[in-house]
Specification:
The structure holds two protein chains of two kinds. By secondary structure, chain A is mostly helical. Chain A is built from eight helices and no strands. The chains are: A mainly alpha, B mainly alpha. At the A-B interface, helix 1, helix 2, helix 3, helix 4 and helix 5 of A face helix 1, helix 2, helix 4, helix 5 and helix 6 of B.
Chain lengths: ~200, ~180
């Protein structure tokens, strides 16, 4: 019962934040994919880096539950290709679909219905596809810790790698020539316009 | 004062937003476990089939593996919709549109064309997520936070393929239109 309320609360907070960063806006996602807007990819990678450091700390104090998913070279890779095609086509992913539909975007509602249909088809074919595509190349629940031998070292490697990616995205993606508004005052951040 | 003519960006800046979201991700790890959102689709269907065709739901491994609507997985996606609704209603700046302007510029005003595409894309995305065992959140964000190779591998491929797809889709018209 507690889980139901925890899930609801977490979902509301999550949905709120991803709406505010613009991840539920398919227009902004398309611009991110076209390398015109660097904010969403940098936001995602920084979220992962901060979460990885935080989870290291949570694990150190013995809080929380982890469950890394196994890697299947064929199934994970093939799924990622199909997922990428869909993501590029519509600009939504399974999480943002719900928040965008709640926001009132009609195209997201259709993506949600399509998602339910896709889930239903996969569930129908699960018994055939998992032994065929997933199991043969399943290498288990491997993590960076297995590669580097130490959890702390692996976290540092991940954070450095993500930091480099964030820096590279900032360089390679077109910088937007639009000014930014302050989070709380809603005033432009640019120093020249404080008196507006 | 060349900045005067520019449109302000209505979105939160990415660094504070990432701190906020990682705080939520860590809260979820601490209070429940690895966050996931594509499982919410299975949970929804599980509830639907348990009501309409209980024998079918009981016979499929995929529905047995994931609990029905009375679970964290379902209330999380329900909460996402509520959070999106609240955020949408409390923001005057972020535009809510049925069809993205970048799409209109390339493919016109047809609602049917856009909705048919997002239906098909949603179908692909969820079929793929269920095959991989997770999505952008459940596999990439949640997995990479746990240092899982599956999450990093999935994340790299989805970004590259989505960028390639968007380039093919929007082609040369991309980038000419306004930011908002």
């Amino acid at each position: 019962m507690t889980n139901i309320w925890l899930g609801l609360f977490s979902g509301i907070a999550f949905g709120f934040v991803i709406q505010r960063i613009g991840a539920t806006d398919a227009h902004r996602m398309a611009r991110s994919h076209l390398m015109l807007d660097a904010d969403i990819p940098r936001f995602m990678l920084l979220t992962v880096a901060l979460s990885a450091v935080g989870l290291f700390w949570l694990q150190a104090v013995g809080v929380g539950r982890i469950l890394p998913l196994p890697t299947s070279i064929v199934a994970t890779g093939l799924a990622a290709v199909l997922f990428g095609i869909g993501w590029g086509l519509c600009g939504y992913c399974p999480g943002t679909i719900w928040a965008a539909a709640g926001e009132g975007r009609m195209d997201a509602l259709f993506a949600l219905l399509g998602g339910l249909a896709g889930t239903a088809l996969f569930a129908q074919l699960h018994e055939t596809l998992i032994p065929l595509l997933y199991d043969p190349t399943n290498v288990g629940q491997i993590t960076l810790t297995d590669l580097f031998g130490n959890y702390g070292v692996a976290v540092v490697v991940l954070v450095v790698a993500l930091g480099l990616c964030i820096w590279a995205i900032g360089k390679l993606w077109g910088s937007d020539d639009h000014e930014r508004v302050d989070l709380f005052t809603r005033r432009p951040v640019s120093e020249k316009s404080t008196e507006v | 004062m060349e900045t005067r003519n520019r449109q302000p960006i209505p979105y939160w800046p990415w660094i504070p937003a990432a701190f906020a979201l990682s705080g939520i991700v860590l809260f979820i790890f601490a209070s429940y476990g690895p966050p996931a959102s594509s499982s919410g689709f299975v949970s929804t269907l599980n509830g639907l089939f348990a009501w309409m065709a209980p024998e079918y739901a009981a016979s499929k491994a995929h529905y047995q593996a994931i609990p029905g609507p009375g679970s964290w997985l379902f209330t999380f996606v329900l909460g996402m919709a509520i959070g999106g609704f609240i955020a949408g209603r409390t923001s005057k700046e972020i535009p809510v549109r049925d069809i993205p302007p970048i799409w209109k510029e390339r493919f016109g005003e047809s609602r049917f064309k856009r909705y048919a595409t997002t239906f098909f894309a949603g179908f692909l995305i969820l079929f793929a997520s269920r095959l991989a065992g997770g999505c952008t959140l459940g596999l990439f964000i949640s997995g990479s936070t746990q240092l899982a190779i599956s999450g990093l591998y999935f994340g790299v491929v989805i970004f590259v393929v989505a960028m390639f797809t968007a380039r093919l889709l929007y082609g040369k018209s991309a980038g000419k239109e306004e930011n908002r």
